[in-house]
Structures are given as C-alpha cells and as structure tokens.
Amino acid sequence: MTGPLKHRRESSAAGASPFGHLAARPLDRLAARAMDVLFPPQCLRCRALVEGPGSLCGDCWREVSFVTEPHCACCGHPFAHDVGEAAVCGACAAQPPSYGRARAVMVYNDASRDLVLGFKYADATHAAPSYGRWLARAGRTCLADADMLVPVPLHWMRLFRRRYNQAALLAHALAKETGVPVSPRALVRRRRTPPLGRLNREARRQRLSGAIAVNPEQAPDLKDRRVVLVDDVMTTGETVEACAKQVLRAGARSVDVLSLARAVRTEV
Known about the structure:
two-stranded antiparallel sheet, four-stranded parallel β-sheet
C-alpha cells in the first residue's frame, strides 16, 4: 500500500488528532480551546463533562463492554475463555455465514443501548466521528485490504421519516478515518420490513427475504471488490447475511462486516 491512503491509515492507527492538520495551527488550537470554554465537551453517554470531545467519562467507559479477543474468528462473538486464535463459535461451525469476518466495537446491552439508540433515533449524529474512530480500531484487520465500505440500507420511507441512515453516517465517518471509499447506494431496500428487534433468527430471515438488493447502477462497482458492510447493531446477523449474499452475487471478491454494537448469545 503506497501513497496518500497509506499515510492516512498510518496516521489514524498512530492515534492522530481527529482535527487533522487544522489542529496543528496555533489559531485553530486557540479556537478549539475557546469552543471548549463556551461548550464544554460532554460524555457521549451521560453528558458529564470530559476532557475532550467525542469521548466517554471514566464511569461510562468502565460500564460499556468493548469487544476484545478472544472471540470467534468468523462472527466475532466474544468467548469467555481463550480457545485458540482460529476458533469459531458453535453457530458458525454449524452454519458458516456468507461473510468472512464480522467485528464489532461493543456488546449491545444496558450500558451501550443509550449510545446506540441515541445515535439511531435521537439525532445524536455528533457522535459519528468518534464512532468512526472506534470502528477503525475494532475492524483494523477487516479494513487492511478493503476496497469499499457499503452501509446496510434503509427503506426510503424510513429514511424520509428519520432523515438519515445511521449505517451510512458510520460508513462515512469510518471512511474519513481510513481512506476506504464509501458506496452509500450500492444496496437498496426494495420493500419496507416491519421492525425486526424482537424477532428470532428464522422470523428475521423470512421478513428479509427479497427485501435487500444490489442497486443495478452500482453493481459493476462491486465486481472483484473486497467489501466491508457497515451497520449500527448486529443481533442475529440475518440482516448482514442478506446483504452479504447480494453483494457476493454481484461478483464481490469477499465481504466482511463492521458494526458499532452486537448482541451476544448466552451459549456459543
């Protein structure tokens, strides 16, 4: 990997300032300090004052369960004990998913729910840059050779009501961190599906059948590409599974998945 993309990824991996080259100029640093005085940075979860923008306070950081190793080499489900670097969970062993790897920033539970739902439904879009940095760290192995980021699509009626697709916001924030381009219209929802939150895997699969498709105008761009799907929450995995199948049918070389949060099963 050479050129600007390599430089940008190396800078991000090294923990470069989210303000980039602007923060290096004295006047911009002064302006940033003035903004901190006028609008003190707050914790993304509880709104307590924090040292810098886009972060969690110490209490919230300890409460949120970030996904780390050991985890399933395929779906990224966390393991209670280290069972080997290439170990997969029982679900992936019994029925391997269409995607290659799935990785997530944090476990979806009581502690992270406010972060996810606030971003998804309550216009907390100011958190997107921070989530982009978190995704870049959690998905560094998937992103190393990625050619394209593709957000999980939202039906146009839901998009009209919500005004934004949270998965697309995450994908664009991740693109700024990594330099991997986004194809926000590569996938479309051909029909509106009822809320899937409380459904089991089989019910989700039935409701998603035929609902997601590749945008014909974007299909040529997917051929032979290494695609990373981006979503806010991975629960049963059926939504990203449906997306991955469509992307692979369009000729993509591989598909991985990155999500801000993921549900965990009681048994793996």
